Q: What sequence folds into this?
């Protein structure tokens, strides 16, 4: 791939930047939208009737292996829901059919169906209280003003919680990060690579994973809405300290935009400060 | 939507459990402040305070007005604080929330009622004219502990501010411009600061300088206003669950230590600013021992 391509909202994605393989359907990440062009006046022209345009400013990133293309946006704090995003939502109250949740403070609540959980039936639905956290996927964002955003914890096609881990998050702790950092973490944790610089310039998860292996390892769930849930419940006595250490590493890297070398240094320094044996 | 988003059960439980093990989310000790940065703007009395992620701007201004009829020898001093949507999305413009009322009240009591600024020195001509000093506090980012940050800002601003010189000649009040006469520093009698404590776990855990999440998870807060000499000028236990009396006694000494620490930071920032101004050829104006 040549130099990174910066797109502004409304810009078309040049076709040479799309993944080369055409067999599988192309996956669109957040910040991109498929627009259908009206059929061109000259019927003989073989120009494609679809165009991809950016809806957010950012760097275009193409993943040939997964046949995906997405926009790498700036690490801003504002989250705009897009379908298929994984988010960490907080239950605000429940009604007959829905849990009303918050994905970002000071925005209208989003709805999560009471039965939108793996294996949930009318008799065995999860009893979520106010203030509980759920890891969910954005099912749909309505169009226009007053439209409700719907979340789900299952894949509607299979009835399974896909990818694994969707549902009620118990224990652990949630840390606030920027949406850009959340996107990077998502990429870093979804595709494990042996690159020296890690995925999306993040080595912190690999580094923490290595160092905390003896302490029982940890679980992590990244929400695109700028939240990351960390749990070290296998850690025994050091569980709380390890959780805080991970949270501090992530938030500090986010705030200071540290490079791979600094990330490694930071991880060792924070683990030493928190007195966690590695 | 003008409410602070409630904390999730997970966060609340974790903060409490971590405190039971003496661990705070940002790795601080129970009585350790977040990094404090005090800086000054171009003009006198323009202070920026950055306490962790809480940041605010204080602007001190002065104007000549008529004193109150019942106190002809006293000048006026007001603290104006408005929590606007600039500081946090949870606040609305033009609507006074509980937090605003509370913080304004505490600031009033710690700084104004403790006579930190000698209002009698603001009198120009008995019953006719006096200085009115106004401190405007603008919150630009909110991550807990607004009271202490605002207090630091106001006290630093009062020490940094220089008002125009005014004289009375034949019953006429003459105010000289900043470039005509050396501006006058305000008369600060003592330097009180507030230190806010938050209690957890039925009052067994007490921390200072709580972040927004810690504030939300806490049971109660205790504010102690104290100056460098150890004179307690304000104690409040406004709401929340009961707090043991010993906490007040114990934490007063912690507060004293912290106030000394914070005042040292303010003094250092003031000195640095003064020497910077001296370099810019304004040495004569800013030196304290100048003839007035």
A:
């Amino acid at each position: 791939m040549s130099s990174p391509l910066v797109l502004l909202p409304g810009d078309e994605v040049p076709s040479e930047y799309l993944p080369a393989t055409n067999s599988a359907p192309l996956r669109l990440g957040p910040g991109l939208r498929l627009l259908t062009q009206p059929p061109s006046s000259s019927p003989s022209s073989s120009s494609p009737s679809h165009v991809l345009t950016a809806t957010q400013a950012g760097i275009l990133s193409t993943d040939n292996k997964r046949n995906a293309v997405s926009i790498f946006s700036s690490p801003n704090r504002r989250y705009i829901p897009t379908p298929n995003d994984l988010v960490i939502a907080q239950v605000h109250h429940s009604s007959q059919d829905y849990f009303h949740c918050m994905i970002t403070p000071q925005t209208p609540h989003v709805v999560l169906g009471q039965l939108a959980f793996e294996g949930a039936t009318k008799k065995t639905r999860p009893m979520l209280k106010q203030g509980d956290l759920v890891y969910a996927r954005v099912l749909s964002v309505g169009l226009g003003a007053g439209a409700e955003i719907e979340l789900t914890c299952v894949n509607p096609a299979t009835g399974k919680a896909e990818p694994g881990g969707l549902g009620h998050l118990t224990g652990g702790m949630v840390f606030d990060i920027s949406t850009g950092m959340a996107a990077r973490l998502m990429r870093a944790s979804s595709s494990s690579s042996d690159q020296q610089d890690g995925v999306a310039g993040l080595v912190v998860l690999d580094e923490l994973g290595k160092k905390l292996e003896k302490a029982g390892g940890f679980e992590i769930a990244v929400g695109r809405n700028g939240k990351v849930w960390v749990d070290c419940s296998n850690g025994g006595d050091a569980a709380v300290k390890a959780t805080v250490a991970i949270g501090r590493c992530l938030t500090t890297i986010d705030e200071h935009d540290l490079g791979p070398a600094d990330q490694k240094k930071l991880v060792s320094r924070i683990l030493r400060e928190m007195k966690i044996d590695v | 939507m003008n409410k602070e988003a409630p904390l999730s059960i997970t966060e609340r439980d974790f903060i409490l459990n971590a405190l039971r093990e003496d661990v705070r989310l940002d790795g601080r000790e129970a009585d350790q402040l977040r990094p404090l940065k005090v800086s000054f703007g171009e003009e006198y009395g323009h202070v920026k305070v950055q306490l962790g992620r809480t940041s605010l701007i204080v602007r001190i201004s002065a104007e000549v007005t008529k004193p109150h009829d019942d106190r002809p020898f006293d000048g006026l001093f007001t603290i104006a604080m408005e929590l606007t949507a600039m500081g946090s999305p949870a606040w609305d413009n033009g609507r006074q929330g509980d937090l605003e009322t509370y913080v304004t009240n505490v600031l009033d009591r710690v700084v104004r009622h403790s006579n930190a600024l000698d209002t009698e020195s603001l009198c120009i001509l008995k019953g006719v004219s006096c200085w009115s000093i106004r401190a405007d506090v603008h919150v630009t980012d909110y991550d807990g502990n607004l009271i202490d940050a605002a207090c630091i800002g106001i006290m630093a601003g009062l020490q940094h501010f220089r008002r125009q010189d005014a004289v009375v000649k034949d019953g006429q009040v003459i105010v000289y411009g900043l470039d005509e006469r050396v501006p006058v520093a305000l008369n600060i009698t003592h330097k009180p600061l507030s230190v806010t404590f938050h209690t957890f776990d039925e009052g067994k855990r007490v921390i200072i300088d709580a972040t927004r999440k810690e504030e939300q998870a806490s049971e109660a807060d205790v504010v102690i206003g104290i100056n460098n000499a150890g004179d307690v000028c304000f104690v409040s236990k406004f709401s929340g669950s009961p707090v043991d009396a010993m906490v007040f006694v114990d934490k007063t000494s912690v507060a004293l230590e912290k106030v000394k620490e914070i005042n040292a930071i303010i003094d250092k920032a003031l000195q640095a600013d003064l020497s910077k101004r001296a370099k810019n050829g304004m040495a004569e104006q800013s030196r304290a021992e100048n003839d007035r």
The two ends of chain B are 53 Å apart (CA to CA).
